[in-house]
Design goal:
By secondary structure, the chain is an alpha/beta fold. Helices cover about 25% and strands about 15% of the residues. The chain contains four helices and seven strands. The strands form two sheets. Strands 1, 3, 5, 6 and 7 form a five-stranded mixed β-sheet that branches. A two-stranded antiparallel ribbon has the order 2-4.
Length: about 170
């Protein structure tokens, strides 16, 4: 008989890991009011983009600093970039699978398949990678960076952003 697995104490493990590296205690963001905005049209008529925080960049662009703090860099990635054209640099998770198949953390092939099958209406011209590392300046992220990114999404007529955290 199999013994039940213990749940992974993710937050406790992260806190211990970063405390051992000299980071101050992390103040986890708690969103009491996160508005859900339902799609205003069917998914099959919607334009979709992706955002990963998994240390993904095009091989022709600068790699991410795996030990970054407050890195608000946000890379624009042309939607037609081939899955083979990426590199992964992150110290917050084991990147082996992502290096073998970028779709683990940046599902570009899966999104293309959904568009081809008509599940989603279209892929936005730009996909995104950003917000690498530990972000301590959350006010900067919330009040400056996120609204600027939202404006870029508006310019691309994006209806839905798929967020892929790492």
């Amino acid at each position: 008989m199999l013994k039940p697995m213990e749940p992974v104490r993710y937050v406790d493990r992260l806190n211990a890991r970063y405390a051992a590296q000299g980071f101050p205690p992390y103040r986890w963001t708690v969103n009491e009011e996160a508005p859900l905005t339902p799609l205003s049209k069917p998914l099959a008529d919607s334009r979709v983009t992706l955002l990963t925080s998994g240390g993904v960049s095009r091989a022709c662009d600068a790699a991410w600093d795996p030990d970054a703090r407050n890195d608000f860099r946000l890379d624009e990635i042309p939607a037609d970039t081939a899955a083979s054209a990426f590199q992964v640099h992150d110290s917050y998770y084991d990147v082996t699978a992502a290096r073998d198949d970028i779709n683990c953390v940046f599902p570009v092939d899966r999104l293309n398949e959904l568009a081809t099958e008509g599940v989603v209406g279209a892929i936005a011209p730009r996909l995104w990678s950003g917000f690498m590392g530990r972000i301590y300046k959350r006010t900067q992220l919330r009040d400056v960076i996120a609204p600027a990114w939202a404006e870029e999404l508006r310019l691309d007529d994006v209806d839905l952003a798929i967020l892929v955290p790492a």
